[in-house]
UniProtKB/TrEMBL annotation:
This is TetR/AcrR family transcriptional regulator. It comes from Actinomadura alba. Keywords: DNA-binding. The keyword DNA-binding applies. Residues 1-23 are annotated as: Disordered. It comes from the Bacteria. Residues 23-83 form the HTH tetR-type domain. Residues 46-65 bind DNA. The lineage of its organism: Bacteria, Bacillati, Actinomycetota, Actinomycetes, Streptosporangiales.
């Protein structure tokens, strides 16, 4: 993929309509790639191996995803679409129906889990260019979602700044550094972020 090129990440919607066999092949290829990455890491992923694991011709993989980078981005996008569906339309407290602070906490916890699941791929995506993380559609969705909830939880505050501040610790490179170099587990990261969120609660009592 060209350095600095902006990837087209699907945001809050279904994939384009396609033939049943094409959709089945796409799902088989993505599932196969996910298994390989989970078992041996992103460095072990090859188009030939994915084709063998999925039981399709390697030409099908290339036609569908273009190259290895395109396949990796598709893995990110597929998980991203599922994640967005849960916090925009799923059950409370992550989805609509809970108090704003509970939704903020649930969202940040879920985003930690989402980052943990694909941290290597997300680091790769965020390194496309210095602004790659912010140019991609997912960041804008996260920011709007958080800013809306912050405005509801604490009217009159600078919700747009605070949304950026809550998202900053979840940059994939920092997250991976904390996990690998500092030895922080996921629960410790969630606890630290929860302490930041507590500052949004004027009486420090909403949980």
């Amino acid at each position: 993929m060209k350095q600095g090129a902006r990837r087209e990440l699907p945001v809050v919607g279904r994939p384009p309509a396609e033939r049943a066999d094409a959709a089945q092949n796409r799902r088989k290829i993505l599932e196969a790639a996910s298994r390989i990455v989970a078992a041996r890491g992103v460095e072990s992923l090859s188009m030939d191996e994915v084709a063998r694991e999925a039981g399709v011709g390697v030409g099908t993989v290339y036609r569908r995803f273009g190259d290895r980078a395109g396949l990796l981005y598709a893995l990110i996008d597929d998980r991203e679409r599922e994640f967005q569906e849960t916090f925009l339309h799923g059950d409370p407290p992550l989805g609509p129906g809970a108090e704003p602070l509970r939704r903020i906490r649930a969202f940040i916890d879920a985003l930690v889990d989402r980052t943990e699941a694909q941290s290597t791929l997300l680091v790769m995506a965020e390194m496309d260019s210095p602004d790659a993380r912010f140019a991609d559609g997912a960041y804008a969705v996260y920011h709007t979602h958080l800013a809306t909830l912050i405005s509801q939880a604490r009217p009159g505050t600078d919700a747009h700044y605070l949304a950026d501040a809550l998202l900053a610790p979840l940059a994939a490179n920092l997250f991976r550094y904390q996990r690998r170099a500092r030895g922080m587990d996921v629960d410790r990261i969630k606890t630290g972020l929860d302490d930041l969120i507590t500052g949004l609660d004027t009486d420090h009592s909403a949980r």
